[in-house]
Amino acid sequence: MTRHMTSRHPAPGLPRPVRTRLAWAAAALLAGASLAACGQESAARHPAAVTEFNENGVTVRLSVADWKSSAGTLVATFTPDDAGFHLYSTALPAQGVEGVGRPTEVRPVGSVATAGEMTVDKPVKTIKVAGVRSAVPVYPDGPVTVTLPIRATAPGEAEVLIGYASCSATEGCTIPVADRAVAVRTGEDGLSFDSP
Fold first, then answer.
1. Which of 147, 149, 151 lies closest to 70, judged by CA?
2. What is d(CA 180, CA 105) in angstroms, rounded to the nearest whole number?
3. Which one is predicted more confidently, 44 or 13?
4. What long-range pairs does 34-42 form, CB within 8 A, spacing at least 24?
5. Selection from 129, 148, 147, 149 nearest residue 138 by Cα
């Protein structure tokens, strides 16, 4: 009669170093799965604050990064719908240069306030526009991302006001957008955007 031997060690026919490596690999897989599950659970409790809208030839995507202790970073990406279109500098005067252009603007109001300097991921260049004596500051054609540190001053409702205009050297300009409001809520669970 054949007797089946049992062992407390997995894969008893393998040398001990191989069994040890297998045990460590299994432990690492279990730990990774546990961390992933925790991350999914955390993400489910605190969904990322993201919203976007499209108006007058530009898609604007807003998100909030690194939100901790009632502060974080507002990230706004402006993407012209068509190739060859640029956006104007955030430093452009509100009325443009001799009436030409509209500044790219991201401005929180209400229970959310600016908490630092705005930065932009593209360099400013100047262009000449027919009929305008002064050079006009713009960003290179294509998407532009504006980053702004923000903080919640109190729980409640707030808005982020968005402004921009896009132009092409050959196709002309789209209608400017001014003070386009995106609703925001702040509370114990963090910051969230209302549906646009």
1. 151
2. 10
3. 13
4. none
5. 129
pLDDT over 70 percentage in the chain = 74
Among the listed residues 63, 75, 51, 47, the one whose alpha carbon sits nearest the alpha carbon of residue 196: 51
Residue type, 117: E
DSSP string across 78-129? EEESSTTEEEB-TTS-TT-BTTB----EEEEEESEEE-S--EESS--EEE--
Q: What is the pLDDT of residues 150-179, one digit of tens each?
A: 999 998 899 999 999 999 988 888 999 999
For the entire predicted model, the pTM comes to: 0.74
Token reading at 139: 């960003």
Element housing 7 (H / E):
none
Question: What is d(CA 122, CA 90) in angstroms, rounded to the nearest whole number?
Answer: 11
CB atoms within 10 A of CB 10: 10
